[in-house]
Amino acid sequence: MKAFYIIFCTFLYSSCKSSDDKFSEPLIKDSKGEVCISIFENFRMREHETYFHPTENEIQLAEILLKKELRKTKSQLVKDYHFFCETETPLSLREYKRQYYPIVSKNKQKTIYFIGVCRELLYLYPKWTEKQIQTAGGGNCFFRGEINLSLKKVTSLSVNAPI
């Protein structure tokens, strides 16, 4: 009877799993084959929160939400996120390499904190796929924010102070 129960549970578990459950790779490449996203397992600024390993679908959702948000007009971004002026809004998403820090927030919502560095200044961070980017200044060549996967929305977005 015990063997039957184990076989039944195994069957039930495997039948519930789908391709949607496939975990994302830690380095994600764009259509040109270049790494555009690096997923980290910890984030110094959010050590009190729990890391989760995102699925490919969760990363796709994060990218869709972020692209949608950055397609807003510059004046709408200024209004929504309190940027000082339109020249201080983020560049197009394809201009950035991004670090993703997936965490489960205190209120149990899956969130991805992200940091982006523009291609123009990427030479300053040759190990951007391995080490957390820390900057002061740099204007819109650096941006950061949060994507709440549970709520399916970008909940914060900002750029660094001007150079």
What do these coordinates show?
There is one protein chain. The protein is of the alpha+beta class. It is 23% helix and 26% strand. The protein has helices spanning 2-16, 56-70, 74-81; strands at 27-29, 35-39, 50-51, 96-104, 110-118, 142-148, 153-159. Strands 1, 2, 3, 4, 5, 6 and 7 form a seven-stranded mixed β-sheet that branches. The chain is globular and about 40 Å long. Mean pLDDT is 82; it is low at 2-18.
Radius of gyration: 18 Å
**Bulk shape:** globular
Helix content: 10-25%
Low-confidence spans: 2-18
Distance between the termini: 70 Å
β-strand amount: 25-35%
Q: Secondary-structure element order, as H and E?
A: HEEEHHEEEE
Average pLDDT, all residues: 82
Largest sheet: 7 strands, mixed
- Tally of individual helices: 3
Provide the structure class: alpha+beta
Number of strands: 7
Give a topology summary.
Elements: H1 2-16, E1 27-29, E2 35-39, E3 50-51, H2 56-70, H3 74-81, E4 96-104, E5 110-118, E6 142-148, E7 153-159
Parallel strand pairs: 2-4
Antiparallel strand pairs: 1-2, 3-4, 4-5, 5-6, 6-7
In short:
The protein has 163 residues and is of the alpha+beta class.
Q: What descriptive keywords fit this protein?
A:
163 residues
